[in-house]
Design a protein that fits this description.
This is Amino acid ABC transporter permease. It is found in: Cell membrane. The structure is a single chain. The protein is mostly helical and 236 residues long. The chain contains nine helices and no strands. The chain starts with a helix and ends in a 5-residue tail after the last helix. 28% of the residues are buried.
């Protein structure tokens, strides 16, 4: 078997067209997952009555089951629930008009939220409780103490873990091909099938994934360096 190097370049150019969709599938869930994770982390850290058990169950389920199952459950389950609601209310809305990508984004956001909640919670726990007490002693309320003392330190310490999960979700987007989303891996399959050159196509896809991962790492490095410089400057 001889590797067709010219076809790697041809495949690279075709597969690269899927980069925008892949980045959307990786970044949007991390953004929404951050806010979900922040809420869940605070509920679990401060043991909010009525929500603590729900938050624990959410994290346990989404961390204890594979992401591909989350996509399938959302992809097949949400339309059934929506159809039931639509029919009961006699609405004219059609669930098949909802873009499939929205189901994927919802599933990945919920998955990201579970993992990010643990990252954020560990960051919060790493900040000495005495710092919050000191903030109260100088007249800060809880909101001010969290926003100016607790969260900045917790997030700075969590940046390496945020980077890891961001790169992980970049790679995780490959399972979206199972519900007909033509991200990098899906496009690589299509390109490879046209010429039956799977090795070359996946070499090209691997180079793109690698390049994107390096960019993510570089952005993380810059953010972490600036965040550490800012934190050395004291309270904002």
């Amino acid at each position: 078997m001889v590797i067709d190097f010219p076809f790697i370049w041809v495949a690279f150019k075709e597969i690269a067209k899927a980069i925008p969709l892949t980045l959307m599938l990786a970044i949007v869930p991390i953004v929404f997952g951050f806010f979900i994770g922040l809420a869940v982390a605070l509920i679990r850290e401060y043991k909010v009555k009525g929500l603590y058990s729900v938050a624990n169950g959410y994290v346990s389920f989404f961390r204890g089951t594979p992401a591909i199952m989350h996509i399938m459950l959302i992809y097949y389950g949400v339309p059934l629930v929506l159809d039931g609601i639509v029919n009961s209310l006699n609405l004219s809305f059609q669930t098949n008009s909802i873009p499939i990508v929205l189901y994927v984004l919802l599933a990945l956001s919920l998955t990201a939220g579970a993992y990010l909640s643990e990252i954020i919670r560990s960051g919060i726990s790493s900040v000495a409780k005495g710092q919050m007490e000191a903030a109260y002693s100088i007249g800060m309320n809880t909101f001010q103490a969290m926003g100016r003392i607790l969260f900045p330190q917790a997030l700075v310490k969590s940046i390496p873990n945020f980077t890891n999960i961001s790169i992980g979700f970049l790679h995780l987007t490959s399972i979206a091909f199972l519900v007909s989303q033509k991200e990098l891996t899906g496009t690589a399959n299509i390109v490879a099938s046209s010429k039956l050159k799977f090795l070359e196509a996946f070499i090209a896809a691997g180079l793109i994934y690698w390049g994107l991962s390096i960019i993510f790492e570089g952005i993380s490095y810059v953010i972490e360096r600036k965040a550490k410089q800012y934190s050395k400057g004291g309270v904002a």
